[in-house]
Amino acid sequence: MTSSNEQLYDQLVERHATDVYRYFHHWGFSTNEVKDLSQEAFLQAWRSLPSYRRESSLKVWLLTICKRLAWKRTQHPSQSKELLTETLFENVHPSVDGQRLLEQKALLLAIERHLPKLTEHQREVLFLFYQQELSEREISELLDTPPGTIHSRLHNARKLLRMYCQSDINSGSSS
C-alpha cells in the first residue's frame, strides 16, 4: 500500500470507526470480537471500495458489510446476540438543572428496562435511527426492508416505550 493509500485508509477508519464499533457492540460481541470484526470490516470495505457505486451513503454501504460479518459470525439462532441497551441512549446531554438530570437518568433506566420487551426488529431500527443517526431511508437500504415497514417499526417501538415508561410513572415503579 502506498503512502497516499495508507492515508486514505486511515481517513476511512477515522471517519467511520465509531459507527462500526457501535454496530458490532450492538450485536453484543465482546470487546476483542468488536475489534476483530471492525478490522475485518474495514479491510473488506477497502478491498471493495472500487465496487462502491454510490447508490447509498458510504456509511450505509460500510454498515452493510458489518451486517454481513455479524450475521456470518452468529450463524446459529442460539448464538443470536442481544442489543446492549446502554449504547442506545449513552449520549444524554447533561442538564444544568440537577432535577432534570435525575429525571433523564430515571427515564433512561426505564427505557433500558423495557427495551428487551420490544422485538429484535424494533430494537434494531431504534439503534440505527438514534445511535447510528441513519435516516429511515438509509435504514431501509441497510436492512433491505421497505421504507413503510421501517417507519412502522420505529413508530411502534417509540409508542411501546412511551407506554411502558408511562406505566412506570403511573405506578410509581422504579424497578
Low-confidence stretches: 76-92
Report the principal-axis shape: elongated
Compute the average pLDDT: 80
Structural class: mainly alpha
Proportion in helices: over 70%
Helical segment tally?
8
DSSP strand (E) fraction?
under 5%
User: What is the number of independent domains?
Assistant: 2
CATH class of the largest domain: Mainly Alpha
In whole angstroms, the N-to-C terminal distance is 55 Å
Q: Supply the CATH architecture of the largest domain.
A: Orthogonal Bundle
**Could you state the oligomeric state of the chains shown?**
single chain
The major pleated sheet works out as:
none
Q: Helices and strands, in N-to-C order?
A: HHHHHHHH
- Would you count the extended β strands for me? 0
Which helices and strands appear, and what pairs or packs with what?
Layout: H1 3-26, H2 31-48, H3 58-73, H4 85-88, H5 98-114, H6 120-131, H7 136-143, H8 147-171
Helix pairs in contact: 1-2, 1-3, 1-6, 2-3, 3-7, 5-8, 6-8, 7-8
Can you characterise this structure?
- The chain is mostly helical.
- It has 2 domains: 3-79, Rna Polymerase Sigma Factor, Chain: A (Orthogonal Bundle); 95-171, Winged helix-like DNA-binding domain superfamily/Winged helix DNA-binding domain (Arc Repressor Mutant, subunit A, Orthogonal Bundle).
- It is built from 8 helices and no strands.
- Helix 6 crosses helix 8.
- The model is unreliable at 76-92 (pLDDT under 50).
